[in-house]
Amino acid sequence: LAASDRFQRDFLAARPGFLRRELLKTGAGAYLDLVHWRDQAAADAIMAEAATAPACAAYFAVMDMGAGDPAEGVTHAASLALYA
C-alpha cells in the first residue's frame, strides 16, 4: 500500500487525462489496479512514460510481472456504461 500511495502521489495524480484509480484485492490474494483515463490517447502516453519513470520503479518492483516490460501486464478496456 505504501508503494501504491507513492505511485499515486509522485507520478499519477498530476498526469493529464488521469481521472481516478482504484486498488483492488481479489479473493485469490492477487491485486488489480484499475485506472480510469479521459481517453485511450492519455492512457497510451502515460504507459510510455511509466515504463521508464523513476517514480514508478518502486511500485512496479512489488508486482509479479515476470521479466518483461511493465506494459505487458496491462490490459486496456473500453467503458461501455457506468452505473451508480
Write the layout of secondary structure elements.
Blueprint (H helix, E strand, L loop, with lengths): L1 H11 L5 E8 L5 E7 L2 H11 L3 H8 L23
Antiparallel strand pairs: 1-2
Helix pairs in contact: 1-3
Protein architecture, described:
This protein is α+β, with helices and mostly antiparallel strands and 84 residues long. Helices cover 36% and strands 18% of the residues. Strands 1-2 form a two-stranded antiparallel ribbon. Helix 1 packs antiparallel against helix 3. 7% of the residues are buried.
List keywords for this structure.
84 residues, two-stranded antiparallel ribbon, 36% helix, alpha+beta
* Backbone structural class: alpha+beta
Counted by DSSP, the helix tally is 3
SSE sequence, one letter per element: HEEHH
| Share in helix | 25-40%
Shape: globular
Distance between the termini: 26 Å
Computed Rg:
13 Å
Unreliable residue stretches: none
How would you concisely characterize the structure shown here?
This protein has helices at 2-12, 40-50, 54-61; strands spanning 18-25, 31-37. The protein is α+β, with helices and mostly antiparallel strands. A two-stranded antiparallel sheet has the order 1-2.
